[in-house]
Amino acid sequence: MNPILQHQLQGYPEVPMLEWHFKDKIGNELKATVNTFYLLRDPLAANEQPALQHGVFYVTEPHWFFSIKML
What we know:
The protein is an all-alpha fold and about 70 residues long. The chain has 5 helices and no strands.
């Protein structure tokens, strides 16, 4: 669930939009960029909750995830 929430927090509702963020990076630079992207913001932190609560049900992946878990 963390990658999905990170996409939303960073403003990327769709995964293909991430391509430009990591474009032209290779090796250690790519690794550092990916780590920073996914680990910089904590989706469980109290200060991030308003952003997540506002948009989580408007993004396809979390909506699908929550609907499957309700079955």
